[in-house]
Write a structure and sequence with these properties.
The complex is a heterodimer.
Chain A: E1 2-6, H1 10-22, E2 26-30, H2 33-42, E3 47-51, H3 59-68, E4 75-79, H4 84-92, E5 97-100, H5 105-121, E6 126-129, E7 132-135, E8 140-143, E9 146-147, H6 152-163, E10 168-169, H7 171-179, H8 187-201, E11 208-211, E12 215-218
Parallel strand pairs in A: 1-2, 1-3, 3-4, 4-5
Antiparallel strand pairs in A: 6-7, 7-8, 8-9, 10-12, 11-12
Helix pairs in contact in A: 2-3, 6-7, 6-8
Chain B: H1 17-31, H2 35-83, E1 85-88, E2 91-94, H3 98-105, E3 113-117, E4 123-126, E5 141-148, E6 151-161, E7 170-178, H4 180-227, H5 247-295, H6 299-328, E8 339-342, H7 343-360, E9 364-368, E10 375-378, H8 380-397, E11 403-411, E12 414-421, H9 428-431, H10 452-462, E13 466-471, E14 478-485
Parallel strand pairs in B: 9-11
Antiparallel strand pairs in B: 1-2, 3-4, 3-7, 5-6, 6-7, 8-10, 11-12, 12-14, 13-14
Helix pairs in contact in B: 2-4, 5-6, 6-8, 6-10, 7-8, 8-10
Classes of the chains: A alpha/beta, B alpha+beta.
Chain lengths: 224, 488
């Protein structure tokens, strides 16, 4: 896996390079937009981490040129600006993800992993969450490798929760997943599915929390 | 409600126009010089002086004409007597009928005194003690003033030849009357002129008083316009309604406002730029610290690195809050467009994003609000900043195991957003100062830079709302309540 870091701040560039090399990526680092542009013409990368405020050629311009050449290399934009305008502009120009400085290193690493995985397979079909695994194409869930007895709708609810593990999923999002746009679904029905899921998962230490007024959250496994 | 209104407790903020007024009134009372008083003084004083001068001149003119008229009447009397001078057998006598004598002596106003003396000074008729003329000239007619029976008198002398051409000399006729008659009349004439003049002056003063008041009323409108402004509104003052003379003043003030907002905007840009510039080096420090922590086994070094990490977190927060504040302050607001938005949705989304952080601290974070109908007019970006600051404060200052609830309540003309926690609460004495910049409650043991609530209030006020602080429902914890005008 080759990653190109385009960052003009030497301390940050060094930190990023070292941390990603520790994660066994092959990392190149350049520190201005013109050089980034030059390198990207000649070489293929699995991911570009691009700072926007660059000398010589602006990060957004480098991104525009990359996309104009037809490259689909995932780009993670780093920026010191956090206004909505910049964010929208960056995403419009073909950035795949966006991180505002200063960021947490684990957060950056998680985004890097996700972007590379997306670039590799166009969306993985196997979700895992501690001892819990869900095959989204085979529609099967396993706990410690043992098949779990889940109905199709329970599986649907679990899939959404696992996709957004550690974050809140509201009832509307669950309803959409279960019934599509047209059908109406009562909040009570969702509660029933979540209740059943809890009964089946809690013995294995998988917790679905109710967040007051907001929805549900699949708690991250302790070791992650 | 025992919520203290807190928006007055910011000493560093520019004084609001409304609070300037008492000082201005004080200054006016000290100097005692309103425009109206000055105009009146400048009008009334010269008019008064003119009036007095005019009185003196009037009196002088009146006296002259009164004298002329009275002298003529006096002469007529002398001539009447002269026509009756007869010579019979060389004896000169005056043939005055009794009725004529009575008329001379019993006139209602000032009887006449007369004396007729012969060519040699011999008494013929009249009042023998009437003083003779001091200067026995040869004029046929002459006038002089004298004193008679303790009164000032005016005397006319008339020489009538006994027998013209005979060389027998002339009879001297003196007719006198008291001078007070004339001065009384002259005084009446003068008053007759001066009283209407005084009335005229009084009318002019009244007219000016009223006119100036009318003119100043338009200034009063301007004053109300300025006084009712919020300190965020630095737009130009309306020029059209003001009197022509005041327009240069308004233009100058508008120039000042313009320069002021440019200065403020420049300062905000500076703060924003500085904050942005700081973000990259902080990102570098954070990354390197994290890396070092991963590579270090020594407990001592790890403890130091943890400290460094905490300090970096705090710096990050401060930089972000400085940026928020720079954006929320007046002047910067124009950069964002306002729109009608659903505050409940905005609050729900922001709360959702904070759930993982709250769970990491074992805090039960929840939301209560309507599905829709909490419409406010606002800038989504700023409102999100506000929510983030409210949530950050609540999650930061509430103990593990605590509870934080975000509520959105549409309430008639207002939409209220509140964030309640059951944390340690804020002592009543501190509440008033919590919205001040960099104010922190001591002894909380939590790192913070004290900008959160200042940002919240700044953003609330830029949306025509306000922020208040009160204890939680059962006396513990804190409720920050932000109200917005309902845009439903």
């Amino acid at each position: 896996m080759r990653i190109l870091i385009v960052e003009d701040d030497p301390v940050l560039a060094d930190g990023l390079t070292r941390s990603l090399r520790q994660s066994n990526y092959a990392v190149d680092c350049v520190n201005d937009g013109a050089e980034a542009d030059h390198v990207l013409v000649g070489q293929n990368y699995d991911l570009v981490i691009l700072d926007l405020g660059l000398p010589k050629v602006d990060g957004l311009e480098a991104l525009r040129r990359l996309r104009r050449r037809g490259s689909r290399t995932p780009v993670l934009v780093l920026t010191a600006r956090d206004t909505l305008d910049e964010r929208v502009k960056g995403l419009d120009l073909g950035a795949d993800d966006y991180l505002t400085k200063p960021f947490d290193l684990p957060e950056l690493e998680a985004r890097v992993r996700a972007l590379i995985r997306r670039g590799q397979s166009g969306g993985g079909s196997l979700l895992s969450h501690g001892a819990l695994a869900l095959d989204t194409t085979g529609r099967r869930a396993t706990l410690h490798g043992e098949p779990l007895d889940l109905s199709a709708r329970e599986l649907g609810v679990l899939e959404v929760l696992m996709l957004r593990s550690g974050r809140v999923v509201n009832k509307e999002q669950l309803a959409e997943q279960l019934y599509g746009w047209d059908e109406e679904v009562g909040a009570n029905a969702i509660e029933v599915y979540v209740h059943r899921l809890r009964r089946k998962l809690e013995p294995a230490g998988v917790t679905i929390r109710t967040i007051r007024g907001l929805g549900y959250l699949l708690e991250k496994p302790a070791h992650e | 409600m025992n919520e203290a209104r807190l928006h007055t407790a910011q000493p560093a903020a520019p004084a609001e126009a409304g609070s300037i007024a008492p000082d201005a009134r004080g200054a006016r009372a000290r100097s005692g010089r309103t425009l109206r008083h000055q105009l009146l003084a400048w009008l009334a004083l010269p008019l008064g002086v003119l009036w007095i001068i005019s009185g003196v001149v009037d009196y002088d003119i009146a006296k002259r004409f009164v004298n002329l008229a009275y002298d003529r009447a006096l002469l007529e009397a002398a001539l009447d007597i002269g026509r009756q001078v007869k010579v019979v057998n060389d004896r000169i006598y005056v043939d005055l009928p009794d009725i004529a004598l009575q008329m001379l002596q019993t006139r209602e106003y000032g009887r006449l005194y007369y004396l007729v003396t012969g060519p040699k000074g011999e008494f013929i008729t009249g009042e023998p003690d009437l003083p003779p003329p001091a200067d026995l000239g040869t004029d046929r007619i002459s006038y002089y003033d004298d004193e008679y029976r303790n009164h000032l008198i005016r005397v006319v002398t008339l020489r009538v030849p006994v027998e013209p051409g005979s060389g027998k000399g002339a009879v001297l006729i003196q007719v006198a009357e008291r001078i007070t008659l004339r001065t009384d009349f002259a005084r009446q004439l003068m008053l007759g002129m001066m009283i209407p003049q005084a009335l005229l002056i009084a009318l002019a003063v009244l007219a000016v008083w009223y006119g100036v008041g009318r003119g100043l009323a338009r200034l009063a409108n301007l004053q109300r316009e300025i006084a009712s402004r919020s300190h965020r509104d630095l737009s130009a003052l309306p020029e059209e309604q003001a009197p022509q003379e005041v327009r240069p003043l308004i233009r100058a003030m508008n120039g000042l406002l313009e320069r002021l907002s440019q200065t403020i905007a420049a300062q905000q840009r500076f703060v924003a730029d500085a904050a942005h510039q700081l973000r990259t080096p902080i990102a570098g420090i954070k990354t390197q610290t994290e890396l070092a922590l991963r590579q270090t086994q020594s407990a001592e070094a790890r403890a130091r690195l943890k400290q460094l990490q905490a300090a970096t977190e705090q710096t990050t927060r401060l930089v972000n809050q400085l940026l928020s504040l720079a954006r929320a302050e007046p002047g910067a607001g124009q950069a964002h467009a306002t729109e009608r938005l659903d505050l409940a949705k905005l609050a729900r989304d922001a709360t959702t994003e904070w759930v993982p952080r709250a769970l990491a601290r074992n805090i039960d974070l929840g939301f209560e609000g309507p599905a829709n109908g909490a419409r406010v007019e606002g800038e989504p970006f700023l409102l999100k900043e506000m929510l983030n600051n409210l949530l950050d404060n609540a999650v930061r200052y509430t103990q593990a195991g605590g509870q934080v609830t975000v509520r959105v309540i549409p309430d008639g003309g207002e939409v209220a957003l509140s964030v309640e926690d059951n944390g340690p609460g804020i002592p009543e004495a501190e509440r008033g100062r919590m919205f001040e910049r960099f104010h922190r409650v001591l002894g909380t043991g939590v790192d913070g830079c004290g900008l959160g609530l200042a940002i919240v209030r700044e953003i609330a006020q830029s949306h025509g709302g306000d922020a208040t602080l009160s204890p939680g429902a059962n006396g513990t914890g804190t409720v920050v309540r932000v109200t917005f005008p309902n845009a439903a």
